[in-house]
Write a structure and sequence with these properties.
Chains A, B: This is LacI family transcriptional regulator. Two copies of one chain form a homodimer. Chain A is an alpha/beta fold and 356 residues long. In chain A, 38% of the residues lie in helices and 15% in strands. In chain A, strands 2-1-3-4-5-11 form a six-stranded parallel beta sheet, sandwiched between helices. In chain A, helix 1 crosses helix 3 (53-66), helix 5 (96-111) crosses helix 11 (311-326) and helix 9 packs across helix 10 (269-282). Chain A is elongated, with a radius of gyration of 28 Å. Strand 2 (115-120) of chain A pairs antiparallel with strand 2 (115-120) of chain B. Chain A binds a DNA duplex (16 and 16 nucleotides) through residues 1-3, 26-28, 36-40, 42-43, 45-46, 50-52, 55, 70-81.
Chain lengths: 356, 356
DNA sequence: TTGTATGCGTTATCAA
DNA sequence: TTGATAACGCATACAA
């Protein structure tokens, strides 16, 4: 039988004398104090019609007095109810790229009354899978995932009914909604820019060689070279730089080549920083272009060309795609591309590029 | 009566012919398929003893086959159960300071099997209050809050039983656990450093004049001056700079003073950047010290002294304080101070300071 | 070793 | 306009 808490204002002593632990008030508690039924309280809380205003006022007073808060956990247990919660899986939330994504997602989610549960995968496929599982166990309404390298077919096994939107990189092995940067176009434009400045020996400094973003940026690089009838020179390509230190060393090595480059394209901002350090320490200066903008670029003692984009907007777009699915969109998986722009940063540049 | 789903392997048609919407499998569904009772499935899922290995294997097989995932929402509804979820309220998750806090919190939370629900208050007291309320409605086990300006006694009204740890700034009107930076000490050391370099006219560029961190940094500034018998000069103090542009303008104004400063202390990194721009555009160079480290500082064409600290560690400490409360610590509210260090950044500096 | 009954706090159904 | 009652999916106490 359902527990009925005492309906007199002062609680009668429980059978077990343990009154010192104050439970959170429930609708039943409010109902007892207000002298109505549980259902009436529910009606008031949910602004349902058919409650006499005097009754509603009495209930409201009790709610205020007792500090009642509806238990969303219990509410969402009912069939057909949602948790109004989205799950977010990134590599590392302290990375500004991912935290900006989170920001955009949160903005859109807030507009829909949703909160975001976030977790970091550490770029580990197993950890990502566990995280997705954990989030699904908590009945998130949908998932936003920056996929780690590795197979994602586990999401496909028609076991998961919640919509998923991937960000930044496509998942392996499944068709799904995703939001990507225009990696190829950005690299193309940046290299084209270097070519327009008269360079024909342009080095390419990359991180992990098999990551989608890196491959696409490489494609853009090669296409820009080809469009200008510049022969692709394998000796100017360095891959596998995983931190600024390695990019710095790679830069020094490039400078020592018999026929060194006259410009460098770096595929992300951490590598750009390493290249900058290498150039600085060697005392030479080559034209540099890099993917990703970075803070303080205008304060540098030399010009740097960067490929920039609106990461927060990328998060917004991803969240909007997810909500479209939650709203019933059953069209085939879609890919949205976020535009990028090439901007020259460096001394004498006043202010920030438009839209920043 | 409890719904009992059919116990034959092939589901019999429901009374209502709506088989096209696949429900998520429940323990009861698994039990039906495995031919055991719900409780036995529960035992297997929770690794309880007293299950014959053959039975357990049958249940495991059914779980795999059906893609069963325990519903954590339902589990946490039972009395005495927690949600293993922490609530995090910051001003803006895309701000690297807050996302680093989030990262440290997440690390510790993960070690305890907890996830983090994050929300941004936009530095708005009302929004913060709503966010706290929303998080409590979702039965978070505890809260981590960067308090917006405004009264926080609403948390005190003995209505909330969950522990709260404040970060970066103390809440107003209540006693609670908190983790703060050594704002005063950092400012003191930075100004002391400028004094040691021979400066006695040191400007102070600040943001909002009544924020705790700003006040403490001002205290450190004044104490360092006093310790060196330097008279506090009101004309060198600029407050109310809310963005780099205003700090840039403030710098230009300072340079135009009849008796201008020879060094500047900026109370946060956004203001430092503004000051840097002001100095650059004016073509003059003063010694600069600032609170908060910033990326690329070593690439600048001049030296900058920064007050740096480990934000991720700050998040870890906050989370550990929260878990201590969740573990039953009922000692009086505590304040933990995160140490800071003064580091000179700029040309010729090789690598990063230790611990970075 | 396994199963039955009950209730967590809410919403939905249906009756009063 | 109100209220009694039955789920939701799980875990807990207790029985078999």
């Amino acid at each position: 039988m359902t527990r009925k808490r005492v309906s007199i204002p002062t609680p009668a002593p429980e059978p077990t004398p343990a009154p010192s632990i104050p439970r959170k008030p429930t609708m039943q508690d409010v109902a007892n104090v207000a002298g109505v039924s549980l259902k009436t309280v529910s009606r008031v809380v949910n602004n349902e019609p058919n409650v006499e205003s005097a009754t509603a006022a009495r209930v409201q007073a009790a709610i205020q007095e007792m500090g009642f808060r509806r238990n969303e956990i219990a509410r969402s247990l009912r069939p057909g109810q949602t948790t109004s919660t989205l799950g977010l899986v990134t590599e590392d939330i302290s990375n500004p790229f991912y935290s900006s994504l989170a920001r955009g997602i949160e903005e859109v989610a807030r507009g829909r009354g949703c909160l975001v549960i976030a977790g970091s995968s550490e770029e580990d496929a197993l950890r990502e899978k566990e995280l997705v599982n954990t989030l699904l166990q908590r009945s998130v309404d949908g998932l936003l995932v920056v996929p780690a390298a590795g197979d994602h077919t586990y999401l496909n096994a028609q076991r998961i009914s919640e919509p998923v939107v991937f960000m930044d990189r496509p998942p392996e092995g499944i068709q799904a909604d995703m939001v990507l940067l225009d990696n190829r176009g950005g690299a193309y434009q940046a290299v084209e820019h270097l070519i327009a400045r008269g360079h024909s020996r342009i080095a390419f400094v990359d991180g992990h060689p098999y990551v989608h973003t890196g491959l696409e940026r490489m494609n853009g690089y090669r296409q820009a070279l080809a469009a200008a009838n510049i022969t692709y020179d394998r000796s100017l390509v360095v891959v596998g730089c995983h931190d600024p230190q390695q990019a710095e060393q790679a830069t020094l090595n490039l400078l020592k080549l018999p026929n060194p480059p006259t410009a460098i394209f770096a595929t992300n901002n951490r590598l750009s920083i390493g290249v900058l350090k290498g150039l600085t320490s060697s005392g030479k200066w080559l034209d540099l272009a890099g993917f990703d903008d970075f803070e303080l670029a205008d304060m540098l003692p030399f010009e740097v060309t960067v490929v920039r984009y609106d990461t927060i907007q990328m998060g917004r777009v991803a969240a909007e795609m997810l909500f479209a699915r939650l709203d019933g969109d059953t069209s085939p998986p879609q890919t949205r591309i976020i535009e990028v722009e090439v901007v020259v940063r460096g001394p004498g540049r006043v202010g920030l590029p438009s839209g920043y």
